[in-house]
């Protein structure tokens, strides 16, 4: 069952949907206590009464697993049970019919993803998309490219993921499977105009709008898809000419974001220029720079100091905004900055020293220390 329908049904019934991963040959013996006979077929909507009186409602069933929900007598009226049985069977038939209609599109997108992989592997980042993947010239207009990387083990169904995205964005998208647990998502650039509307006098930059869409998409997938994920987004592109180079850029963005900014799950290529440069420096030179840049790098790496400095830089070195963000008094923040200056010789209120400390913090995250 689709995850969106699963969550709605669980909310309606007030009970979780359970899954039993039973091979077909074992199912008969495992379900004997609910009256299943040899050769019987379990279908969506079937109901069984367990020995303790619990009503087991079958949500979906196939040759590999059974999804069900256990209800107590009286949770549903007889008419509600019949209505739910009819609804589940209609959903089951509709999902099978729709799945069969979507297979040609999924195969086409899968081949498109394989082609992108081949071009990246061969170093042909500027390769133009062949006409076979550009039916009707759909890739000759601008799309917003997102790269989605899932952390959870179970691979999601592509059709299910596509529906979730289309429902959330309220528009059609192109979903291109790449590597395992990785997808390219192409969304219409009209999202930027819709996202930017209705905000009064507040004007947001294109980068802020793109980040807002990406973070909203991440939050939706985390809750509806039941798994953590990472998303990178770039400026709108014309995929027919730039899709390979863009996928390469977004992959690099996710990799650098996860390496330098652990804990963040939305990664933006325009925010990692310094990280990209520092990543290219050999490890030995990074370590030498860290040791030479400050008299006491150990103080710079204390958890409280790290949190203070990262917040200070995120607030554009504004003392008042940083204190509010950290929920501390302004004088407490000034005391920490003065102590840091006294012990390390670096005053982050000065541009030169702020740059040095920012670089030290970034390098320390990725430098192997002996």
UniProtKB/TrEMBL annotation:
<dbReference type="InterPro" id="IPR051448">
    <property type="entry name" value="CdaR-like_regulators"/>
</dbReference>
<dbReference type="Pfam" id="PF13556">
    <property type="entry name" value="HTH_30"/>
</dbReference>
<protein>
    <submittedName>
        <fullName>YxkF</fullName>
    </submittedName>
</protein>
<dbReference type="InterPro" id="IPR025736">
    <property type="entry name" value="PucR_C-HTH_dom"/>
</dbReference>
<feature type="domain" description="PucR C-terminal helix-turn-helix">
    <location>
        <begin position="306"/>
        <end position="361"/>
    </location>
</feature>
<dbReference type="InterPro" id="IPR009057">
    <property type="entry name" value="Homeodomain-like_sf"/>
</dbReference>
<dbReference type="InterPro" id="IPR042070">
    <property type="entry name" value="PucR_C-HTH_sf"/>
</dbReference>
